[in-house]
C-alpha cells in the first residue's frame, strides 16, 4: 500500500483541525483514514490554476474542487483585481455564471460572497448560462472581470472555475501568473474574506442578472447573421434541424437565436433537453464524439433532418452532423465545420461587397491548414496562436486597439468558433446559428454540407486530420506525460514513415512571439505535421496529426503511416 508523503499528512491534519472547515468535509476525509493512496491523490498538491483557472474532481482536499479551493482562488483573484483596478472610479465588478454541473450554483455563490467580502460587486446569474454569454456580459456591462463555473465536457465528477479579464477573455499567462501569486499568498482559509448573502445584497455588493442581459446577448448573436432576410423569408422554412443541448446551458439561447433569425423547424432531443448534472443519457457530454449524437440521429431519421447540432454543457463548443452521399449521418470534425463556416461567411461577405480589405481569420497551431487556405483564397490574413481561445481573444483585442486587422472568424479544431467581436471566447450559440444558416443556404442550391465539403476538397486539396490522446491520471500520470515530452524533445526522429522531418518547433522556447508552452510540433517534407501537447484541462497527452493528399485515399494512407508510427513510439 502506498504511503502518504509528509506534506500530505501535514495538510490533511490542517484541514481536520481548521475551524473554518465544516464538519461534513472533515467527515468525508475521515472516511479515507485507511486509504493513504486516496488521501495522497487528494492532497499531494494544491489544485493547479492552469488553463484559464481551476479544473478538478469534486470533493474534499487541496487537489480537489470544493468551496474551500474556490474560496481561496477567489480571494487571490480579489487581491489581483483590487491591485490592478482598485484606483479606478467606482467599485470594481465581476460577472459570474455557471453551468448545470454538480455544485455549480453553490460554487458560483461562494465566489460572489468572497468578492463581496473584498468590496467587489458580484453580478450573478441565478441559473445556468453559457460561457460565451458570460464573456459577452463582462464586455456589455463594463465589468472588471468574470468567472464561470464549468468543467466544459469533462465527466460528471469534475467541475471548474474559469476567470476572465475586463476584455471578456480568459486570463492570458502574464495575467494568470499574477493571480496565481496572490492565490499562493492566501495561506489559510481564515484569510478568505466573505460576506453573508443577506449582507452582500443589502450593501449592493451582490446583484442578480436576468432577462435584460439574456435579451442583449440573443440580439447581438442574431445580428451576426449574413443572410437573415433569406432565412426568415424562405430558407428557414425549408430546412429541418435537430438540436441536443446535452443537458447543458445551450438549450434556451440556441433555440432563441435560431428562432430569431427565422428557422421554423427546430426539433430538440427531449431526453437531453433539461439540465442533468450526471449527463445520464451519454457516456460523455462532448459534441466531438459520435456517441453523444445517438439520440439526435434517431430523432433526425424520424423527422428527416438536414442537419443535427449539439452543444457541450457550457455551450462554448458545437458539433454538427450531416448526411453523406449514402444517406448516412456523419459527424463533421471541428476542422471541417470551421472550413465550411469560413467558406460560407467570407464568400457571402465578398458577394455582398462587405468583405474588409484587412480581414483576419485566427486559428491555433494545431488546427488544420484547410481553413487557412480557404481564408487566404478570399484575401483574408491568417494568424496562428497557441492552443486555447484566450489567445484568439487576445488577438481580437489587439486588432481593436491597433486597427491593423478586422476580425472575422476565430476557431480551433476542438469545436470552438467565434464570428463577430461581441465576446472573447468561443460561442456554440453563434456557431449553431452560422452552420445552420450555411446548411439552409446551400440546401437552397440543392446541396448538403457534405456536398460542400467535397467541393472544398476538390478545390483546395484533401486535408485530413486526426487526434490521438492518452489519459494518464494522478501523480504517476503527470510524471509519465512529462517523460513522453522529454523523450521526444531530447531525441527527435529524423523521419517518420519514410518522410523526412524538416523542422522541429519547440514552443517551450517561446516561438514567433508566442508565450512559452510545453508543445512540440514536427513539420515533414511532404507538408504533413504532427504535434505533441499535454492537455491543460484534463490528465491527457494529445497528439495531433495533419496531412494533405491528392485524393481522399492518398490522404488516408498518409495519415495511417504517420499516426501509426508516432503513436507506437508514444505508447512505448
How would you summarize the topology of this molecule?
Layout: H1 6-17, H2 23-30, H3 36-43, E1 53-57, H4 67-85, E2 93-98, H5 104-117, E3 121-124, H6 131-140, E4 145-149, E5 158-164, H7 173-185, H8 197-202, E6 206-208, H9 211-222, H10 228-238, E7 240-244, H11 251-261, E8 265-268, H12 294-303, E9 307-311, E10 318-323, E11 329-331, H13 334-351, E12 359-364, H14 370-377, E13 381-385, H15 389-402, E14 406-412, E15 416-419, H16 428-443, H17 449-460, E16 462-471, H18 474-490, E17 495-496, E18 499-506, E19 520-524, E20 529-534, E21 540-549, H19 552-571
Parallel strand pairs: 2-3, 2-4, 3-6, 7-8, 7-9, 12-13, 12-14
Antiparallel strand pairs: 1-5, 4-5, 9-10, 10-11, 14-15, 16-21, 17-18, 18-19, 19-20, 20-21
Low-confidence stretches: none
Question: What class would the helix/strand composition place it in?
Answer: alpha/beta
Strand order of the largest sheet: 1-5-4-2-3-6
Shape: globular
Rg: 24 Å
Q: What is the count of DSSP helices, taking H or I runs of 4+ residues?
A: 19
Distance between the termini: 27 Å
Q: What fraction of residues sit in β-strands?
A: 15-25%
Largest sheet: 6 strands, mixed
Helix content percent band: 40-55%
Number of E-state strands: 21
Task: Summarize model confidence as the mean pLDDT.
Answer: 95
